[in-house]
Specification:
The protein is mostly helical and 293 residues long. The protein has helices at residues 5-11, 18-33, 39-67, 88-114, 117-131, 145-152, 155-166, 171-176, 178-194, 196-201, 207-211, 213-238, 245-251, 254-261, 269-292. The protein has one domain (5-292). The protein is globular, with a radius of gyration of 18 Å. The protein starts with a helix and ends with a helix. The mean pLDDT is 95.
């Protein structure tokens, strides 16, 4: 019997998809400000980014379920493979289908429009989406997941979105991408802090496992400060003060920061993860509006 649609929807982890939406919004705003907005390229960039993240989440569900990281001690939302709702092979096939049916066509179109780097970038992103938790030396299991989230859902996503529309690469969107990159990393940090105990037993050596919960709590706060600092720094550099509106998105995380520093752990961090996802979405919107005003 096939799994209900709601199970598949849960497997995409919709509360974290702002990690794809925010950088595309920012890259599009910068392209618009340079008179380079291109609607179809914007849509392709968004679908491609979402496709990579969804495929990564589905593959994560598959491999974490097989490796035991989503075992009985898990306190996060249920995972379809670990719960027996979807077979590992079915979940992996779904991840590959997303890459082939969404990411590949988008990357191909953008490569034809703006150059071969988009096909190469799409291939690397697709491979890392699977290798994030797949294989014997997967990124998440050796502690490189944070770097992957920061780079690919930050500077790379914003710069690529800008280049997809203007057909030119620039350092400005890459620098702007540091902001959503920090908050994407913050989402993963909370996820890893919540799962620290079960990850340790499954030999999933996230930074929270390698360096402890105190490190993860500090990392979360540092990421929030970093995102705010990017908005402030760019506003000062370009003397474009409406960009400071993005700082408000980070300020919405102050209650979460207080709870995390006070020692919040386990299931309550599910709400903190969701609020961090919302803050990232708001950051992308406010930064984008601030840029084009």
């Amino acid at each position: 019997m096939s799994a209900p649609l709601r199970v598949w929807l849960e497997a995409t982890r919709p509360k974290t998809l702002s990690a794809s939406i925010a950088p595309v919004a920012i890259g599009t705003a910068i392209a618009y400000g340079a008179n380079g907005f291109h609607a179809l390229a914007c849509v392709a960039a968004l679908l491609g980014a979402l496709g990579v993240q969804v495929a990564c989440n589905l593959a994560n569900d598959c491999f974490d379920g097989k490796k035991g990281a989503d075992g009985p001690l898990r306190v996060g939302p249920r995972r379809a493979v670990a719960s027996g709702l979807i077979a590992p092979q079915t979940m992996l096939r779904a991840a590959i289908a997303v890459l082939l049916m969404i990411v590949l066509p988008c990357a191909t179109y953008l490569a034809l429009r703006a150059g071969w780097p988009f096909l190469a970038l799409g291939g690397v992103a697709a491979a890392l989406a699977v290798l994030y938790t797949g294989g014997p030396f997967s990124l998440a299991y050796v502690g490189l997941g944070d770097l992957f989230a920061f780079v690919f859902f930050g500077p790379v996503a914003v710069a690529a979105t800008y280049a997809a529309q203007t057909t030119q690469w620039s350092w400005t969107p890459a620098l702007a991408g540091l902001g959503p990159g920090f908050l994407a990393c913050a989402i993963l940090t909370i996820n890893n802090l919540r799962d620290e105990e079960s990850d340790r037993l499954a030999h999933k050596r996230t930074l929270a496992v390698r360096f402890g919960a105190a490190f993860a709590r500090t990392e979360f706060v540092a990421c929030a400060i970093g995102a705010a600092g990017v908005a402030v720094g760019l506003a000062a550099w370009f003397r474009h003060w409406p960009l400071l509106a993005a700082v408000f998105a980070v300020l919405t995380l102050l209650p979460a920061i207080r709870r995390v520093l006070a020692g919040e752990s386990g299931a309550p961090l599910n709400a903190t993860l969701a609020s961090t996802g919302r803050a990232l979405f708001l950051y992308g919107i406010l930064f984008s509006i601030g840029w084009i005003r």
